[in-house]
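Hi D.,

Good news: the full-assembly prediction came through. Inputs first.
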Amino acid sequence: MRISTFWYCLKQGVNNICRNILFSLASIATVSACIFLFCLFFSIVINVQYVIKNTESTVGITVFFDDGLDANKIKEIGNKIKARDDVKEVTFTSAEDAWAEAKQEYFGDMQDLAEGFEEDNPLANSASYTIFLNDLVDQDQVVDWLKGIEGVRKVNYSKTAAEGMNSLNKVIGVLSMLIIGVLLAVAIFLISNTISVAAAFRKNENQIMKLIGATNYMIRAPFVVEGIIIGLVGACIPLISIYFLYRSAVGYVVTKFSILSGLFQFLPVEAIFPYMAATALTLGVGIGFFVSFFTIRKHLKV
Amino acid sequence: MIELWNVSKTYEAGNKALRNVSMTIEDGEFVFIIGRSGSGKSTLLKMLLKEVEPTSGKIVVNDMNLSKMPRGFIPKYRRKLGMVFQDFRLLKDRNVYENVAFAQRVIGASTRSIRESVPAMLKMVGLSSKYKFFPQQLSGGEQQRVAIARALINRPEILLADEPTGNLDGHNSMEIMKLLNEVNKLGTTVIVVTHSQEIVDRMKKRVIVMDRGTIISDEKKGGYTYEN
Ligand SMILES: Nc1ncnc2c1ncn2[C@@H]1O[C@H](COP(=O)(O)OP(=O)(O)OP(=O)(O)O)[C@@H](O)[C@H]1O
Ligand SMILES: [Mg+2]
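Then the structure:
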């Protein structure tokens, strides 16, 4: 295609939008809303996942042993655990360590009070392994496996933290899919209508173009351009607003809830924005292109 | 060359617009098609443009059989034809220059070719000074000149005009006809459908008379023999 033809189609596409500015704006607004929500959920989900990843290294599984299990047996179990692929790290806490830790925790400065127990370690059977997994998703499986090992008395693990987060992510995901789906349908409907109105407006012109010998491709081009512009603008507006919103939101949370900053870490906007922008632009332009293409094809057949 | 072989057209409604029409028009001819309203004149032109398909028969234009033409080739074929209508069919939101340039733009012509040929064409139809005017600022005759310029800008081999003077007064009609005659002298085949007895009688060209879908007379240097 010639550059001049490209500019001509671009100009006609812009003309289409200007002529029917209200419909076009409504279409842009719905595409924007759609992509805004997409970006918002994208940011939340990806950050929750990031937090989970971080927690995974702090939440472990603790394994206790049968009364009086001898040290060799315990060592053997430890080796077995270490041999697994999904296990990242295993640390051993002896009964003495456990007692020392407990003393510190319960009696604090008044270590004297604990002296009475010294003879007979109340936590004699509290030797344990603490296991950290590569991926918390495997936790249930590993726990079941641990319970099946001979000599293992008890397996302590935290279902709540990881699974809570995971299911939160799932709920957010499903909810956002639903809302985005509805908005997407509205956006498609509105773009399709906008293109139809433009096509009706240009009916006469399209007829003349046909008789002059313009290709179908040439006749459709302005409408597809119109759709792409709607999609592009509809993607850029939310991207720009999300960029600044995200930055200030992270800044706000970090300064206002500095206690949390040890617990939660946000991904910097620079880390997620390129992916978000690429997805949003593809989404916007894709919707604009396909909807306008199929709408105009339907109209010009007759 | 345009050839029709036993061409018939029955519209969906059951209207028989053409019945077994056969004829030949040579390159460079000037032909009037006249006949009562509803006799099938416009249908004939639409078939040549491949806007309407014949129900039966064969149409061959410049050795191309229209019914066997692949869809993708139709735009290219239409560029060999120019079409002028009774109601001008100009784009109201564009000025004279743009209306003519439009025909070049939509077939993907280069800006350079547009800048060269549009002013020349406007000069030929006598509208050089009004190139910035919009259609509603022009008289009917002037609008039809713009339409003719648009039809000719892509250098068609055949010019089809369906009642080009139907909305014009006598003087303007003769001016348009003079223009079409000049175009014809430059080598373009011209086919004009008209109801104007004065025009047909004055021009002394080939006249094909149609009635109820058939050709009832075809004379070289004919006159307006048909009685309304
Ligand atoms: N799209 C159509 N659908 C059904 N019938 C049609 C259609 N177009 C034309 N006809 C019918 O075909 C016949 C010929 O029509 P056509 O337009 O070719 O006549 P014409 O000779 O051009 O008439 P006029 O001088 O009034 O323009 C008429 O009876 C008309 O009613
Ligand atoms: Mg007619």
